[in-house]
TrEMBL record:
Component of the exocyst complex involved in the docking of exocytic vesicles with fusion sites on the plasma membrane. Residues 412-760 form the Exocyst complex subunit EXOC6/Sec15 C-terminal domain. GO terms for cellular component: exocyst; plasma membrane. It comes from Chiloscyllium punctatum. Belongs to the SEC15 family. Keywords: Exocytosis, Transport. Pfam families: EXOC6_Sec15_N (PF20651), Sec15_C (PF04091). Residues 49-218 form the Exocyst complex component EXOC6/Sec15 N-terminal domain. This is Exocyst complex component.
Amino acid sequence: MADTAALETVTEHERILQEIESTDAACVGPTLRSVYDDQPNAHKRFMEKLEARIRNHDREIEKLCNFHHQGFVDAITELLKVRSNAGKLKVQVTDTNRRLQDAGKEVINQSEEVIRCRVQQRNIATTVEKLQLCLPVLEMYSKVREQMKAKRYYSALKTMELLENTYLPQVYQYRFCQIMTENIPRLREQVKEISMSDLKDFLESIRKHSDKIGEMAMKQSQQQRTFNSIVKKQTNTSHERKLCIASGMVPDRMDETMLEQFQDDEEEYEAEVLTAQDLVDFSPVYRCLHIYTILGDRETFENYYRKQRRKQAGLVLQPQSNMHETVDGYRKYFNQIVGFFVVEDHILHATQGLVTRAFTDELWNMALSKIIAVLRTHSSYCTDPDLILELKNLIVVYADTLQGYGFPVNRLFDLLLEIRDQYNETLLKKWAIVFRDIFESDNCSPIPVANEEEYRTIISRFPFHDLELEKQPFPKRFPVSQSVPEIYKEFKEFIYASLKFSESLHRSSTEIDDMLRKSTNLLLTRTLSGCLQSLIKKQHIGLTELVQIIINTTHLEQACKYLEDFITNITNVSPETVHTTRLYGLSTFKDARHAAEGEIYTKLNHKIDEFVQLADYEWTMTEPNGRASGYLMDLINFLRSTFQVFTHLPGKVAQTACMSACKHLSTSLMQLLLDTEVKQISMGAIQQFNLDVIQCELFASSEPVPGFQGDTLQLAFIDLRQLLDLFMVWDWSTYLADYGQATSKYLRVNPSTALILLEKMKETNKKNNIFSQFRKNDRDKQKLIETVVKQLRSLVNGMAQHT
């Protein structure tokens, strides 16, 4: 066992020695550690083994050195020989080097010169190369300056952009390039400021020239409208001309002459017409737009431009305070607005996005509302129909002009309908003055004509047809006064004036016909009716004049159908159309006649009152004068002559006037008898009064106005007749016995009326018969009167209780 362990230890030590010999010195540590980790005292045996190995190696080294020692000696000998040769060689090399250095000094000097020249050449080449890079930069910068000086700002910006993006990056390291780089933003701002200044000048320029631009645009539109109107008229009349030629008649060349004249005028106008581009230089706005687009600030420019144009629109839409006084004020106002929107339309189509259709529509809607409000306000101050008509024509041209540029103008034509109503009102006021002047100058007497020419002149002015009048010899008279044909002529003038406003309103013939008829109805029902009513109410108008007014209104009423035909011929709208408005002449003139008739009745009664006030009865007279009173005879003569004038009146009017006059006369006479200031009435006064009533009855029976049947007119005096008969016959027994019966002889005698008159007679009898009371007849009569008075009082009281 011991031998075996020793053998293993020896083997292990051999392995360790081999590892030490073969491994690197840095790795010997772990190998040596294994020596100490084995059996105790193993390291001693290992050291012994190691020393034996060292000795073994020393012996091998010694053997090897002994084997090579001679060769080493020989080598040393050879080396000593080489040493001596090396010394010689060194001397030779040193000498050669000295000689070579001496010979190369000149070459070195020339080489240094060559090197220096080549460095200079390289520097020059580099400099030329850099200058070639810098020169375009400098040229471009100089070009920018020249373009700025020449006000070619758009080109200058393009050059700056090329300089900044292409050239400067190639030479960015130089200081002057840095200075240029810093200057370019300042140059751009300078360009922006200059272009903005140009834009402001442009805005000021278009503000000044808007009036002229609008004037030219409206003139062009007006010419186009006139040309279209003439062409349309020629088209409508071409068929008539063909018929004229076919029938051998010479066609009217008036329209052709007008068209040729218009074409000549148009050619002359086109030679001198100026457009917006001719009056205003739009290049500043184009240039400014391009500049701001290049600078990436287009939105700022667009906002500024639109803001400024909105402000200018507000200024343009602000009218002058006295604009309504003359048509030139309206024309200037419209010219400015048209000029403004013509410029905007040009900008809209000439630029891309500077203004949009939405922006122009917004401006137009704002402007349209303002324009309508301004026109509505200022036109309300206008009292001259000619000025309103000119304003209407201006509005139509204005609307047509802007409609040609694509702006909606329907609200303007709606406004024209409002102005049309005001125009009609001013026409009505104007014609009210005309009618009043006609009535003032009218002599209210039939028109005399001495010959056929005068007769035809009147017929041509007024549609009057009367076969009887035509058969009468000259001189003769029309039943109407001079005012009738003049008024009828003014009717036509009014219709023409009203038609002028309806032209060019883009309305149908039916609508125009309706407008004319409505305005004519207003002329009849308001203006003429008011003038007639005022005329009738005037104090100086007498019965003859009132009669003539009734005759005039009758013929004017009959002429209304001719006015309807006149309107139909103008508008070519058949009167049978369902919605055609009719003229209200019947009601207008009927009202005027009623007013005149009422005024006749009033004035006639007033005249009767004036005559009756002249009555001077002696109520206590004992015997009558034997003849009627003078005032009454004068009154009857007046009535007779007056009713003769009524021969031209309609029958019922004359009969009503006559009956009204007789009734009023009867009532007035009755009031004379019953007057409270008359305290006493004698039988002689009653008999005298009876004579006057008899004259009235004779007048009534003489038929002062034809058409009464029997004694109808005499019945106006029946109350007086029965009352007077009662007192003169003294038939009280019959009156009292038959009172209340339909067959009573004194049916129309009121007990209260009889009582009042009887008491007045009673008082007269008392004063006249103071000493006759002793006579039996007088006493009996007095008693009878008292008895009748008592019975009448009882009747009156019974009537009062019954009521």
